[in-house]
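Now read the record:
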Amino acid sequence: MELFYRVVPWMFLFTSIAAEYIVYDFGHYTNHTVNYTSEVDNETTTVICARDHLYDGLDIRKVLGKWYARELYLHLSKEGVNEFNSCPQVTIWQEEKFPTTTFGPSTENQLFHVQHINAKFRHEYRHLRLLWDEAGQTIEYSLYFKNDSAGYWQVFNGQNGTLTARPTYQQFSGTIQVLKAVNDHLLLNFCQDQVNGKSAQLYSVLFSREPGFMERWELDSVHSLLQNKKLSVASRRLVCGNSATKPIFSIASSIIFVIFTFVIKSY
């Protein structure tokens, strides 16, 4: 009993410290919106989709396959930071042929020079598909990119999928740009200029190759990259259970266990 009264206060102390640390450093990782002063104003900001040439020489094979969404950065929003239970996934694959029904005129009964132009286009450009899957609800993007700018993808057809049937869905006709591509995570920027009556869209999505928690230092490096490009991270959505509170509780539990074991052995 005496041992119990000696150990419990220490356990309470470290539990309290851990809880205070979480509230101070990670309090915005909750299920509630935190009110931030956004760095942008959706009503006055002019969106210009600037091209970044860093990944012009990207080996497209490195980004093909399945990815798990981690954070969605809404650069034109003031919603703050929210956490969601959903876990969207994307699958990216390359197709050899462009769909003849969705891009360019038919090659049937065309003059030779028109067929030649189409053939040249298909030689200089490549075709991608990107499938966004959120619990069976999907959006499929059809994209193309030039061989010498493999990290800059352009949309040439409207999206298909069950999510596009929702009244709130806005068709995206802009560009998708690779801002970061390493072995275990991928950062894509979606940008659409406000032209031809279409509303501006500007957001980025961070993906990881494997499911599970993503290290805080990796998230911080992505945030710094976006801020250096003048892209606000004040409003973002956390998905796939990527809350930074979990490791802190784990560390606190480990500390308590070590202290408890040390005290037991000392008696």
About this structure: The chain has four helices and ten strands. The beta strands are 65-74, 81-83, 89-95, 125-134, 137-146, 152-155, 175-181, 185-192, 201-208, 236-238.
